[in-house]
Design brief:
With 406 residues, the protein is an alpha/beta fold. 31% of the residues lie in helices and 19% in strands. Helix 1 runs antiparallel to helix 8. The protein is globular.
Length: 406
């Protein structure tokens, strides 16, 4: 079937839509000026003795990107309406600090010190399903973890991040990356937002197919940044289409979601109508610089991932909701933007990732004080609204000074 070619940002010209982005670009550039982006690194590692000093992590991918001729990258930032499937084995050094991704230096790949790819193969739909079923059957919990990445993310970056989370958390899951067509460019925020919108049908199809797979018992979704908006949109779409979410979807984890709080209210109003409700965990940080820039860019209310859960009206609404809130505002990591704390903090990824991905809820006290306070170095303020009731994220109102009315 003919598939129209979908242009990247360099082929578009929308001066009005990009006006605010042009104004905020100096801020974004200042935020990332101290860091450089590594080169793509999905070239297959040549077999050598250093592989014995690394741990393999097998994962699967569903990509809404066009294939790239660059084997270091595998998939580009150009959009496609036809999902592509892949299986990968990522090599992670045994001796490394958790929470970090050790990128190769240029073309040098040493499995004992850097992440790399041991295997990569594209699959058709039947082969993808068969490989997934094999992997799921090897896991005691038969639990699938779907990772939805955020804005400005290459395919290999999302792949390494998922492998790092699974390895460092110790979660006994089958990892599946859902990779929508991010252009992976700082100035391509509008393009990425449109690409995320295009990814809704693909993510819905993946969730439905995983839920229909007889060998799968549970499905968890971990979404970061703009991937959180995509995930909430997709869950809303599923509820509208079928009246409920699949019962196998047990956990939804939103890490620093780049979603306007009013939009989250509208999405949640539909999602909470589902007869089957997953446990929802929200990771927030008030010092998230990337979300501060996004708020300025949109000229809107707070972003969901940067709210202060101890401040009204959020505190009161969260106390009535079933959303487990983890406040990472006082957690220090090597992330200069404070936007990836959920994965960069060893204690967070080891404790939360392991318990949620293995189907267990995060332990809380009756008073709502999160035990991470005593575990995560540098954490002095924990979320006060930690409950385990059904999902009611839609009850959250706008920020202080204004709230949506019914």
């Amino acid at each position: 079937m003919f598939e129209p070619h979908m242009a990247g940002p360099g082929m578009m010209s929308h001066p009005r839509g990009l006006h605010r982005l042009g104004l905020v670009m100096p801020l974004l550039l200042a935020l990332v000026a101290c860091s450089s982006r590594p080169e793509p690194a999905l070239t297959i590692i040549e077999p050598n003795q250093t592989l014995a000093q690394a741990v393999p992590v097998e994962l699967f991918a569903v990509s809404m990107r066009r294939p790239s001729e660059d084997e270091r990258l595998r998939f580009s930032g150009e959009r496609t309406l036809t999902p592509r499937f892949a299986r990968m084995v990522i090599s992670i050094p045994k001796d490394r600090p958790p929470g970090e991704i050790q990128w190769p230096n240029g073309s040098t790949h040493d499995a004992s010190t850097h992440f790399g790819a041991r295997a990569f193969e594209t699959l058709d739909g039947d082969a993808f399903r068969a490989g997934l079923a094999r992997h799921v059957s090897s896991k005691n919990g038969r639990h699938v973890l779907v990772f939805v990445h955020g804005y400005n993310t290459r395919f290999d970056e999302a792949t390494f991040r998922l492998a790092q989370i699974v390895h460092d958390s110790g979660a006994d899951v089958t990892p599946v990356l859902f990779s929508w067509a991010s252009w992976a460019s700082l100035g391509a925020y509008p393009y990425d937002r449109e690409s995320a919108a295009m990814g809704r049908d693909g993510l819905e199809a993946l969730i439905e197919k995983l839920s229909a797979e007889p060998g799968v018992r549970q499905v968890s979704v971990l979404a970061h940044s703009m991937g959180g908006w995509l995930t909430l949109e997709t869950l809303r779409q599923i509820v509208i289409r079928r009246g409920t979410l699949p019962g196998k979807v047990t956990n939804v984890m939103l890490a620093a979601p780049d979603v306007d709080v009013d939009v989250a209210l509208a999405q949640g109003r539909v999602i909470r109508q589902s007869r089957q409700k997953p446990q929802v965990t929200l990771f927030v940080s008030t010092d998230d610089k990337a979300l501060s820039a996004a708020r300025w860019l949109w000229g809107s209310r707070d972003r969901l991932g940067a709210i202060n859960p101890t401040q009204e009206p959020y505190k009161g609404n969260l106390e009535k909701s079933g959303v487990t809130v983890i406040d990472l505002s006082d957690v220090s990591t090597g992330d200069s933007l404070n936007h990836g704390k959920f994965a960069a903090s060893p204690a967070i990824v080891q404790l939360i990732g392991k318990r949620l991905a293995s189907g267990q809820d995060i332990e809380t006290t009756q008073g709502g004080i999160n035990p991470l306070t005593a575990i995560v170095q540098g954490t002095t303020r924990a979320a006060e609204a930690v409950l385990t009731a059904p999902l009611r994220i839609g009850e959250q109102a706008g920020p202080p000074g204004g709230a949506l009315s019914e």
